Amino acid sequence: MSSLQGYVDRRVLVILQDGRAIVGVMAGFDQKSNVVLSDSKERVYSMEEGVEEIPLGLYLVKGDMIILIGELDETVDQAVDLASIRAEPILPIRY
After folding, report:
1. Sm domain spans which residues (predicted)?
2. Domains of the chain (ranges, CATH numbers)
3. Which candidate, 41, 11, 13, places its Cα nearest to that of 27?
């Protein structure tokens, strides 16, 4: 749990069990690893089009839905042309 403390007030990428990729600034978390993201956007990947970013604003993610949280280097992330990226969407996790 204390490992999430280092991500507060930093831009992170969160991958969810249903395959969604959400980018936002981690505003906080609780003891169940529920995460609050501010200024968040969902990145939708496609082989036909570039990456689409859907604004979500303030977003709460349940801890049991999270697969991965990683800090983004903002300068590198801003330098990437998302419209030129073609990728298969992430498949949902199946148990």
Report:
1. 1-75
2. 2-84 (2.30.30.100)
3. 11
CA end-to-end distance (rounded Å), the chain: 24
DSSP β-bridge partners for residue 13: 23, 70
What digits encode the pLDDT tens for the residues 28-61? 999 999 999 999 999 999 999 999 999 999 999 9
**The model's pTM:** 0.89
Closest CA to 20 of 51, 53, 43: 43
Helix then strand then coil, in percent of the chain rounded to 5, is 20, 45, 40
Q: Where are the alpha helices (DSSP H) in the chain?
A: 74-79
